[in-house]
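hey so i finally got around to running both of the ones u sent me last week. sorry it took forever, my laptop kept dying halfway thru and i had to restart like 3 times lol. anyway pasting them below in the order u listed, first the sequence line then the structure token line for each. didnt double check formatting much so if smth looks off just lmk and ill redo it

first one:
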Amino acid sequence: MWSAAPWTRRAALCCVLLQTLVHSSGGLNMCMSGSTTSCEECLLIHPNCAWCSQQDFGRGWMSRCDFFTNLLKRGCENRFIEFPSSRTSILESRPLSSKGSGWTQYDVVQIMPQKISLSLRPGGQTWFGLQVRQVEDYPVDLYYLMDLSLSMKDDLDTIRNLGTKLALEMGKLTSNFRLGFGSFVDKNMSPFSYTADKYQENPCNGYKLFPNCVPTFGFRHILSLTDKVDRFNEEVQKQMVSRNRDAPEGGFDAILQAAVCKEEIGWRKEAYHLLVFATDDVPHLALDGRLGGLVQPHDGRCHLNDKNEYSASTQMDYPSLALLGEKLAENNIFLIFAVTKRLYVIYKDFTALIPGTTVEILDQDSKNVIQLIITAYNVSFNVSVEARSCPPRGTDQSFTIKPVGFKDRLEVSVDYQCDCGCSQTAKSNSSICSSMGTYTCGTCQCEPGYLGARCECQEGDSGSMYLSACREAEGKQICSGRGECSCNQCLCYESEFGKIYGSFCECDDFSCARHKGILCSGHGECHCGECKCHAGYVGDNCNCSTETSTCVSDDGRMCSGRGSCVCGRCQCSEPGAFGDTCEKCPTCPDACGTKRECIECRLFNSGRLADNQTCQRLCKDEIITVEMLKTEDPNAVLCLYKTDDDCVMKFMYSEHASGLSVLTALKEPECSRGPDALMVLLAVVGSILLVGVVLLAVWKLVITIHDRREFARFQSARSRARYEMASNPLYKQPVSTHFVETDFNMFGKSYNGGVH
């Protein structure tokens, strides 16, 4: 059985914490800001206000209306403090019916609890839980709407057999189950998608990690609701992912078409309608379309063409949250946001704005999608109830809660805590009130014509003994010059500027510091000449916001690490830094390093930010690629870094006059090739041969020159010799003598000799 006790304790704890925070932060004490004179008036100011009925409390100027903790600190005993809080009581809570419990159509229980009672204090809230379960074999139509952008490629592989598994699990709850399928990416137009000619047929063109995908589309209805699970699996297996340009998706376009195209989708009127929306990123909202020139608001109608594609994707803006909520409720569709963990808070906020929706965390590989749907089939709600005023006395209030399609209902009876308990012991003509009034909750309610804290004097009495009680201090004006003293108390004048109040009329709600002509900057309340700032603001005139989220840069750092957050705005301390979050700083030492990561992920899909969604979220600068960098711009900074393959990447970083950061980068890194060993060997051998040939040539030249010189000298000497032989008288021609050998015999001896 569900119990209200934890909720009551939680609500009380929140109240006490709020009191402590408001009081400790020096903010406005709304309980003491007015001039309440009764317990009932105090309780109506704010649900955190309490009243002290202790008789001796509040002497002098001390308000009986204050925060609970403040009253205790100021000496009021706990038993005299009136501090009612809203609460819930369970009157009837039978368990929900389940299979095999032996119920019949007359005693089935679909809602728990069945009867509750609420006791509400005006302005306070209370909570209670409500559980709802469908009856056996109630018809269910489930349409699975999936994001088919590139980042969901792993999830597409996971759900290829989702139909079989889902039908098996849902079969445990109902045998009347049908399943359909649709997908979405984003509007196929700039700046939401890639529109260059080379991307029309393949938006993944040039994307190294996933080079092939189908053309971008807005919404595509693929399979109408059917009980043939195999058809679902077949169609899912045919699907391929696409790619858009920015991080947000066009999912809200798809949700609206799935809701209003009833005939095309195949929604049955009598069935329970479930629409599962699976994505891993945020959606585009209304007015985002104006970035692409779409000024026509969405008309909330079905626009599916003969190809079952959303034909008005590039003609109308994205739908608003209000329009989505209207169309989902109009068609009895229960929407389930199945999103990744990092998006849970965002989509949780959407559920507060779109009635009939819930959000669940989707596993990284979407394996828990079946459990999400099963959980949504057995619905539970947390209901918050608040009383904003007190009805006429004696009025009984009640209401019922009945979910669409269910026969059971929750009956809620309400009573209001508009009276204080101490009022029940009021004493008329009490001696405490000089027998001229009623003593109730620690104060006197005087009879007409009598005044004073104890009704001790009549109207018009102005004796000197009373005048001294109307001065804040000796020498001060009576009632601060802004009221009249009557019977020991000040009656403050009325003012066209605001309210004058206080025991001595010393306070007002209009004499406080202003900012741009607005009292307390509109972020606080003027109390007795001092601005009491609302939560989140400080300063003499409450113009300084303590919110720091506006100072957080895209990379998650406060003021990009180049300044401090003062009054909700960044004050840049790094020389040369500027921008809303000091994110622009071409001359900062880390400027090149910061922009390098964007160059790596945007141009080469590498580096720390290589994840597609992270890169698109953090790197919004315009990047221009060129063949050759021009470094003449004096306002641009030349950045270069060494890549993993020992190449050098160069880019220029500059800030445009429009405030846009511009990165001009080379299309490809500059790479220097290493020496070729064969070429070096050939060069060395060639050089040696060349030197040898040159030396031989020089040696030959020297020998030739030397020989020619010697030959010339020989020729010269020979010429001189001929001249001398022709002109010298002492010269005689030489005579040549020749011998002829003969053999003869003389005296018996042989002789060999010659004849001249």
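and the second one:
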Amino acid sequence: MTSRASLSMASGSEGQGSPPSTPQRPPNRLGQERSPYLLQHAHNPVDWYPWGQEAFDKARSEDKPIFLSVGYSTCHWCHVMERESFEDEEIGKTLSDNFVCIKVDREERPDVDKVYMTFVQATSGGGGWPMSVWLTPDLRPFIGGTYFPPKDSGRRPGLKTVLTRIMEQVITMSKLYLNSTNTALYKVQMCVYSRETPPPAHDVANRCFVQLAHSYEEEYGGFRDAPKFPSPVNLMFLMSFWSVNRSSTEGSEALQMTLHTLRMMALGGIHDHVAQGFHRYSTDSSWHVPHFEKMLYDQAQLAVAYISAYQVCACVCLCGSHISGGFYSAEDADSLPAAGGSEKREGAFCVWMGSEVRELLPVVVEGATGGATEADIFMHHYGVKEQGNVDMEQDPHGELQGQNVLIVRYSVELTAARFGLSVAKVSELLASARAKMAEVRKSRPAPHLDTKMLASWNGLMLSGFARVGAVLDDKALLERAVQAAGFLKEHLWDAERQIMLRSCYRGDEMEVDVSPIAGFLDDYAYVICGLLDLYEATLQPEWLRWGEELQDRQDLLFWDAEGGGYYCSDPTDPTVLLRLKQDQDGAEPSANSVSALNLLRLSHYTGRKDWSQRSQQLLAAFSDRLTRVPIALPEMVRGLMANHYTLKQIVICGQRDAPDTSSLLATVNSLFLPHKVLMLADGETEGYLYQRLPILSSLTCQGSSATAYVCEDFTCALPVTDPQELRRLLLE
């Protein structure tokens, strides 16, 4: 996603729930939809259509251009544009009379979003949401942008002006712009994926490290200046790079960059110190003032990053979940102020005035220097100021004036020394204060919660719970992971048609309403990855079996047999103009990047060499990108490294719940081993794994003790039964 400062035609994008629509106005067609974003526009005075054949037929029969508006339910500037323009009666009439107006939730239809965002970026040099694109009746774009104010503002044209110009010159404009459209789309479509073999892993990994090191910001961690995003794909690459370069200066630097970034994020305002979780990004370089939106995919990936870095994972939480196990998509940035008012403000739910803190924490702390109160200590530690701690440049609209975003300014040890107290006493005091503040926040008007449940993001969260649960040996987290996998299989897997579904929704009575939209590549890739992680955490082969089934379907639906790699969406869909392959790891990793490692892991679990070869073909398809700018694909570089260094097969022979088996598993799970597969040989020779890998029958326990084998291509080192000996073997 782009920040508010970097959009070519907008002062911003991202994150907020919409204000209440006028209740008297009857709903338009969007009132029949399930998407929270589309429902937010159901009472606009605009004759909105959802993306579909009805709208296309109307445009063609009436020979009208299409106005396509794309966003998502927690997008701040989407709702600014709604409030300013789509709720305006005059603009609504102009749009409805002269255009076929289509509204798209980008999280429901990422395929549509990718195609037209590609056009906007190619023709304007920028992009973001809301995205506003005008199309011919045959769905070809001829003008595009992002946020438009209702009236001209400085050098930025207003929506009224744009609409007037298009209506006056629609025939001329569409012909004129279609030439540039065709050129832009042709260039994208003709991206060549031609190499027969992947590039050298060592060279690509080193180049990726150098590029990340060049963009690294030493004081506060992270990459590049503000706005600063968490970028977990970068952190996971750096840890994988360290794992194969432990003794080198570069390896040490990679680990230091990772740990410092994770620590500074945990201390900063991007981390919600009261209710936990991480906000979307920081508006400054010090991780202080965030954009307050929370996204499920951030929480999922940061859980894995923190646990991989052996950090305590209590700072990563959920956006919320359904009683049947699915995870909701996002929490809004904006909400109504606690003091009252009808206009939502960014961060209102999360920020604090100094006077609020003093009123909540008035007790004088016994033994504290100078008769300090709980508020004095809390405000010192978290940088709370009476006049507020947000600089004007981080608050262009004045929404945070006099407010404080909590940020850890001192270590607990320094705070304790400042007030003459023990570290234990200060830790207890701060925890108690945060709990009190959490209770106060519960009484504030809550931000909008997008209760859409996406297969892809739930797959990421499945990985998060499985990985964290395995490392911490936390049975509750593992049970939650199993529940999430069960939810995906029950509600988002159409067993009859053998396809994943994109999304489902929380109904009025907490029932689950399923969308008919078929899943996209990321829905398959992220869920498969989650299932593989869940197998390694629980060693229940049913999850491997389903992962294998899903991979077969992914190959059938999305694989490009000519050029290699996977298309993002169904390449046979006639309503999607471009067959795109995502070649960048951004806020979410590219599904091709994830698939490179999925295929390799599955080949080791199933014995299917064709999947190992397919992983190589996928990497070869992106060879040019990997060679030139590996920093654009750090997750794919991890897959390239895994192919190069060969996955270790760690086979534990024993009964799953036996204490000696658990000790060996705990040893494996305590180590960061990015290039491994873990499996349990429990002696059930009729079971799934034994049928896929007959060689497992030759690996047996030594005497009555659980036994570990560390193998490469099932050429195994001598078996070990002692956890410390296994640890030594794994670290060789």
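quick thing i noticed on the 2nd:
The longest helix spans residues 159-189.
anyway thats it, ttyl
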